[in-house]
Design a protein that fits this description.
Serine Threonine Protein Phosphatase 5, Tetratricopeptide repeat; two-stranded antiparallel ribbon; about 50% helix
Length: about 500
């Protein structure tokens, strides 16, 4: 395969338009040299990767409230106006050409982001720390986020385009790219590719740790209002770029991704280690993160748009998200996002606060992403796509403790988590592994609506997908996307 140079389009600040010089200078090399001539250039390059991943062809729709949500059967397919989404929800990916561009664009988009990570790492690795306002601290932080983003993208390529390790850990379908520009690279067995994800995440964790947990902690992670709104008491060292890291790949998010990656691989010990590290250090201990208070869950129509960002470790920001959601949901008068199997999902737990995120009529419209009523939605709340939640950390703790024989702790954590969501019914015991997974999947059907993570849970466990009155059998043909013939890597 020929090498393909990527034209890097980055933003001034996380939410701004491209630099003018990128628009007028046609030579890639000249643009690249100008981009990395100062610290702001490295910051812009990193921000550009986040913005790429937030596009609607990736996590801004397809890999969150779009295709993956249809595949995990969040929505009633009878009201799917979009033909492509209907095909995705019925697992007829290749029955027509409609779905192929969606899948191809995910492959190429994630490898595009990976190429940008590799370019950034290539350019920053030999830079003197003196080029950065915070010296080594700043250089390490930028490198750490780039490693974490590279691992994140590869892990989701694996979770989408390869069988789950529990089915076939030796399937070699996804190459792991660590150089720029990309070259022909042999696909690795899934187990080995996940190991490289973990290796990158471990590097990233160590690189961002000092900044996020000691140096600037009071401004970005320790207080939730600083994490998301930028309201902080202490001055942030280094400027605005080092503020509001609540939904970026900060230390806590990387720890959560390590737990996710180890669990997907099937390494229960390490998954438990990192989930417990977050729980003990940042939730149960110093309480850097917390679940939303009971007043946050409300039956008031004007407050129906809620994503519970207090509970998020990582997410993407898309400035067009509300417009995209509204234009999609209201197409041709359809109310497309109707929760499928509402009664089955909330059976025996009508007091679960998450039930308030759906309309109370028979349509059970999903309000998680929508602006409803006359409310003025907070910018961060309305335009953020959740990617990693504390609920996933709880699920990992509950599952891994049970598998390790710590059944009492598993049940304790389960009831502790359920209480945080308003459920008054106590679970007395977990009666075997099958019961464990039934409980976790039933809860995830409430928690991950419109986020896509439920699909990955089904796939990792090789469990059939629940629908009203039955299941959809989890076959490789349904759970594994075919690698595109083009195999564009950038």
């Amino acid at each position: 395969m020929k090498r393909i140079l990527i034209i890097l389009c980055v933003q001034v600040g996380l939410f701004c338009s491209c630099n003018n010089w990128l628009e007028v200078e046609p030579a890639d090399q000249i643009s690249k040299n100008k981009l990395f001539e100062d610290e702001m250039g490295f910051q812009n390059a990193l921000n550009g990767i986040y913005q790429k991943l937030a596009e609607s062809s990736l996590y801004g729709k397809v890999l969150s409230w779009g295709a993956l949500s249809f595949m995990e059967q969040d929505y009633d397919l009878n009201y799917a106006y979009d033909y492509t989404d209907a095909l995705m929800g019925s697992f007829e990916y290749y029955e027509a050409d409609y779905s192929l561009p969606v899948i191809d664009n995910v492959w190429s988009g994630l490898y595009n982001a990976i190429a940008n990570c590799n370019l950034l790492l290539k350019e920053i690795s030999d830079e003197s720390p003196s080029k950065f306002a915070l010296d080594t601290i700043a250089k390490d932080l930028i490198m750490g986020e780039a490693y974490a983003l590279r691992a994140f993208c590869h892990l989701d390529l694996i979770r989408l385009f390869a069988p789950a390790p529990v089915v076939d850990e030796q399937a070699a379908l996804v190459p792991y790219h660590v150089v720029y520009p990309s070259e022909v690279t042999n696909a690795l067995p899934t187990k080995d590719a996940i190991d490289l994800c973990i290796e990158d995440l471990l590097k990233a964790k160590d690189l961002v740790a000092y900044h996020d947990t000691i140096y600037n902690r009071n401004g970005m992670l320790y207080k939730k209002d600083a994490r998301f709104d930028g309201i902080y008491i202490n001055t942030i060292n280094g400027g605005d770029f080092y503020n509001k890291r609540g939904y970026r790949l900060n230390y806590c998010a990387i720890v959560g991704l390590l737990a996710r990656a180890y669990l997907y691989k099937g390494d229960v010990d390490n998954a438990l280690f990192y989930a417990k590290h977050f729980y003990d250090r940042f939730y149960n201990g110093n309480k850097w993160f917390s679940f939303s208070s009971s007043t946050y869950y409300t039956t008031s129509l004007s407050d129906k748009q809620k994503k519970y960002l207090e509970e998020c470790l990582f997410g993407f920001y898309n400035a067009n998200l509300l417009l995209d959601v509204e234009s999609y949901y209201s197409a041709s008068g359809y109310s497309q996002a109707r929760l499928a199997d509402y009664d089955g999902i909330f059976a025996d737990d009508g007091d679960d606060w998450r039930s308030y995120l759906f309309s109370s009529d028979d349509a059970h419209n999903v309000y998680k992403y929508r602006e409803v009523g006359n409310q003025s939605i907070d910018e961060v709340e309305g335009l953020t796509i959740p990617i990693l939640r504390m609920s996933e950390i709880y699920y990992i703790l509950i599952e891994c403790n049970y598998l390790k024989g710590n059944t009492e702790e598993s049940v304790r954590l389960l009831n502790e988590f359920r209480a945080k969501k308003g459920c008054k019914r106590q679970i007395a015991s977990i009666n075997g592994v099958n019961d464990l997974y039934e409980i976790l999947i039933n809860d995830a059907r409430r928690e991950f609506v419109g986020e896509g993570q439920l699909f990955f849970m089904y796939k990792r466990l090789n469990r059939d997908i629940k629908v009203a009155g039955g299941v959809i059998t989890a076959t490789n043909e349904r759970m594994v996307w075919e690698v595109p013939d083009s195999q564009i890597f950038y």
